[in-house]
Specification:
With 251 residues, the protein is an alpha/beta fold. It is built from nine helices and seven strands; from the N terminus they run E-H-E-H-H-H-E-H-E-H-E-E-H-E-H-H.
């Protein structure tokens, strides 16, 4: 049995950077995954991307894999039940509730947000902050059309904005980069429509809980990163020493 966590863990004030529990919201291509990777490394928290978990499940095959692939390739959302179960199982397996984390690509519906809140409550935890990456359509289209991903380690690049050192090859693991099936133009349009339909209520859900902070997703990564750190600072989610060392981080 998991023993209950001390009450103090649920309080935001005094939380240290490696205990932060964050959500990144924004349209496909907003740069959530790219920033989550940098932020997770520097804050020393886990990065949970449901898109990556789902693509891994597709690669593992079976009936479930085939079913998930149909949703992903057509740009539809995977049903709430499936994605919630996958994420919560993985987080519980890895003992992930004990550390801070960044959720990227989840939640995508109010139902997912509610279920995740209930899971947090069972652990006597709550979210610290939800960032909304408000991103303009031309920027989204440019980013998705130039996105190339590593099928092995999932790292994402951009042919112009964030190119790998050697064209077409992953810096981290040497695998050949690919374009995602669902980054084709027709599917992208459908994904953006779905995002438009689901996002307003989701943003409202977190707004009502005082957790929402909006940032300009069109900005470059370094400016976005610095903006996020200053928001942590303003909300007393990090100490001033942590803020200074996070702002000085380069790797
Ligand atoms: P992007 O990086 O473009 O936002 P993701 O990698 O997050 O895309 O997601 C790719 C696809 O995986 C989505 O179009 C959807 O089919 C599925 N997916 C990912 N996360 C979720 C989720 N939280 N709920 C439902 N479907 C999801
Ligand atoms: P998301 O996870 O929101 O779908 P990604 O992080 O995969 O988005 O980024 C989409 C594409 O845009 C990738 O090719 C990535 O290299 C590039 N990218 C991400 N953030 C930025 C940024 N701030 N400025 C320019 N390009 C970016
Ligand atoms: Zn790789």
């Amino acid at each position: 049995m998991v023993s209950p966590k001390p009450e103090a863990d649920t309080a935001s004030a005094g939380a240290s950077a490696n205990r932060l529990r964050l959500v990144l919201l924004g349209p496909p291509g907003a740069g959530k995954g790219t920033l989550a990777e940098v932020l997770a490394r520097r804050l020393r928290v886990e990065h949970w991307a449901t898109g990556d978990l789902l693509r891994l499940a597709v690669r593992n095959g079976g009936v479930l894999g085939a079913e998930l692939k149909r949703y992903i390739d057509s740009g539809e959302l995977v049903p709430d039940e499936l994605v919630i179960r996958l994420l919560l199982d993985r987080m519980s397996d890895g003992g992930a509730w004990q550390t801070g984390f960044i959720l990227d690509g989840f939640p995508r519906t109010v139902e997912q947000a509610r279920q995740f809140d209930m899971a947090l409550q069972r652990q006597r935890l709550r979210l610290d902050l939800v960032f909304h990456f408000a991103t303009s359509t031309p920027v989204i289209i440019n980013r998705l059309s130039g996105r190339r991903v590593c099928p092995r380690c999932q790292k994402s690049y951009h042919v112009r904005n964030i190119p790998p050192k050697k064209p077409g090859v992953c810096d981290q693991c040497g695998e050949s980069l690919v374009q995602r099936e669902d980054d084709r133009e027709a599917t992208v349009r459908h994904r953006l429509e779905i995002y438009g339909a689901e996002s307003a209520l989701l943003l409202q859900y977190y707004q009502e809980r005082g957790l929402l902070a909006e940032v300009n997703g069109d900005w470059d990564i370094e400016l976005l990163y610095r903006t996020l750190i200053s928001i942590f600072d303003r909300r007393a989610l990090v100490t001033s020493a942590e803020r200074d060392s996070l702002l000085a981080a380069t790797s």
